[in-house]
Specification:
The structure is a homodimer of 419-residue chains. Chain A has 419 residues and is α+β, with helices and mostly antiparallel strands.
């Protein structure tokens, strides 16, 4: 994409009320637009990141047997009364609204009830199990403390999968697979090295749930990491008894601030019971379905990546989620530079490389460099009078201090050494 | 995908309150789930149709210079007060809801204000124009007559593009391009032959808007078609004066019921004025931006396809939007059939052909045939003891009465004759 055609521009300042570093950088870069606290629109560059995260997550969910669908945002009172979660006294994050012709509806703050209600139509026999439907969907939560940029939203985009299994054994088999899928997701998203499977509070049906916590000062949670075992314990269950159960010792645990980027939860029959979601087993008996939930907020994940992978100049996107792999800069106003930069743009595109081309006239080299650092594409490629003397371009990774001159004839091989 | 792994099943009956044919067929087929009147969840098969429509529309929008982004559902009072569309007395389809910590917000029923507000940050000079941002997004409308299945929803998924141009000439150039893009979309979606560019009421800034109306008895509009010119006039502007302006005569116009599947609208400065959305032109003067809007509802489009392309047995999906191109049926319980059907499934998948494989045991041939007709994939391929006698499968298009036996060795070439 040519930057002259991208309508967004970088800004020197974020809104004064924006204190979260992730939102500050994302607003300055023109990735997002703040509508109000906890509500953001995704501008073209930001949407590209969300879509790459979505592709990574979808691929891992499909690999463990997930089937994608899309539930409605509007939720019906009758359905939520079954599980006793309609009442605002019970759930304090509902957004409710009224129908013109009478009656109240809610906006999805989570999906257990919607899924249990739908699946009740389709699950009758053991032959119908297991089932792993999932959703990418906009979720609404009436948060009073929407203050962490895109990490705690009143409106956010998430993935939620629900597992429907015959019994605990079938459930556990999938639950273990989902742990690996989640690890793969955070690895692919570039934050695997600072993300830990974390034991957190469970419920009536399991002693623990599992969170994926990423170390960052911007996090709202405190966790205790055992580096050698690669696992952590959330403060909420950090007791002598729990540590003994998990075979962990306070001596080897290190305290960190962290943000929860995903969670998986064994629900047992908590939701199948109120919905009377039963199946007939091989012996002809009627049995409640065993459920689990598996969530990831894509905005929060994007914000976490920015918190973890940025420096004082801007964002440092991992290749897997960068809006573009290459930021191509044409420096100076000479016709020759413009011509060669355009040829380089065409060559990169023809090689299937995603490239943002800063073809803007009347913008200084300093401004273009500063924009490239702020926007944070993995590779910066500069075509200038100087680079043309060597019949090439200067290639610099966002993580490198200095670039290297690469002849045009070697450029694609330099970027795709294994192709 | 194997049908044994698809958790949805066909149903004999749609909900008693569902009178619209599109929703009736889509619910029976397990494409959608009715949450309440005007609110539907998309089950796996239905989501696949929506995604194919989205891909068709995205490709046409990008081809005319569109840039995708995603605005929030939650809308802020201040922004809508500028254009005087916050008040429920002015706009009667708002869903409003309250923040926990005070204040009211609305849910997007359209996008002019959100876009004008965002673009005001980025449009300053003639160099910033034109710009063509667009959105795929869930839209909320507090309809009292949500009764046409997925064709008039309280919640629906749409595409809206807004054009920002320097002047009317630049606007008209894009407006004409958008007409062609819309024609391409409906052609690709399989309803081009019954869809007409229709003159409808304009506004202060243009004598007409343009709708794309598809002939169907399920439509809520009445249009008058001039078949030879390939255009139509909406009843709302069907006057002698308008016909004279358009060079049309009542003698050649034929009345039809139709549904509006898309519309394009010249907005002039209706929204740029209240937002003071101006740019500095080449002469240094400050000028209001000229806008246009371009919408398509994807659920309505899907519903229209079903209304137009179905028979008494079920849906007849066009290849371009079918959830799967091929429905492969294994008939009978013999091991040999199961083995050969599985081999056929693998062969089709390896050739990149999307296939739904009815591998279910204990289901009669009659039921499998009825399901295939209801679900409406373009090709039905049957592997049975009989077809195996000729070492092949029976291939039948959904639109054909009878199938043809095709040897396994010719199957891919039969489906992809030009490959």
């Amino acid at each position: 994409m040519k930057q002259s055609q991208l309508f967004t521009k970088t800004r020197k300042e974020a809104p004064a009320d924006e204190t979260a570093r992730n939102a500050e950088l994302l607003i300055k870069g023109g990735f997002i637009h703040k509508e109000m606290a906890g509500v953001y629109s995704f501008l073209p560059l930001g949407l590209r990141v969300i879509e790459k995260l979505e592709t990574i997550i979808r691929s891992e969910m499909n690999a463990i047997g997930g089937t994608e669908m899309r539930t409605s945002a509007i939720q019906v009172k009758d359905v939520w009364e079954k599980s006793n979660r309609w009442d605002d006294e019970v759930v304090d994050v509902w957004f409710k609204t009224s129908l013109k012709n009478g009656g109240e509806v809610g906006l999805s703050f989570t999906n257990e009830e919607a899924y249990s209600n739908i699946m009740k139509q389709y699950i009758h026999s053991y032959k119908d199990l297991p089932a792993y439907p999932y959703d990418f969907k906009t979720i609404f939560r009436n948060e009073t403390r929407a203050k962490s940029g895109i990490m705690r939203g009143r409106e956010f985009y998430w993935k939620a999968l629900y597992s429907f299994s015959k019994d605990d054994a079938q459930h556990q088999e999938f639950y273990e697979k989902s742990k690996q899928a989640y690890k793969n997701i955070f690895q692919k998203a570039g934050i695997g090295h600072v993300t830990y499977l974390t034991f957190a509070s469970g419920g009536s049906f399991s002693p623990f749930s599992h969170e994926f916590q990423t170390i960052t000062g911007a996090g709202e949670d405190t966790i205790y990491i055992d580096e050698s075992k690669g696992i952590a314990v959330n403060q909420e269950v950090y007791t002598d008894e729990v540590l003994a159960t998990l075979g962990l010792s306070k001596d080897t645990l290190v305290e960190h601030r962290a943000v929860e980027v995903g969670n998986i939860f064994s629900l047992g029959t908590k939701f199948s019971a109120p919905f009377d979601l039963k199946y007939t087993n091989e012996s002809g008996e009627s049995v409640l379905v065993t459920m689990g939930s598996y969530g990831i907020g894509l905005g929060r994940l994007m914000g976490t990546i920015v918190e973890v992978l940025s420096d004082d100049k801007g964002i440092i996107w991992p290749e897997s989620v960068a809006p573009f792999r290459v930021h191509l800069l044409a420096l100076g106003e000479s016709e020759n530079v413009a011509k060669e930069a355009q040829a380089t743009y065409d060559m990169l595109k023809d090689a299937g490389i995603e490239v943002l081309f800063d073809d803007r006239g009347g913008v200084s080299a300093g401004e273009k460099f500063a924009d490239a650092d702020l926007l944070g594409m993995p590779y910066r490629i500069v075509v200038s009078e100087r680079s043309l003397k060597d019949n090439g371009a200067e290639v610099k990774k966002r993580t490198e201090e200095r670039g290297t001159n690469v002849p045009f004839t070697d450029l694609i091989a330099h970027l795709n050494p294994n192709a």
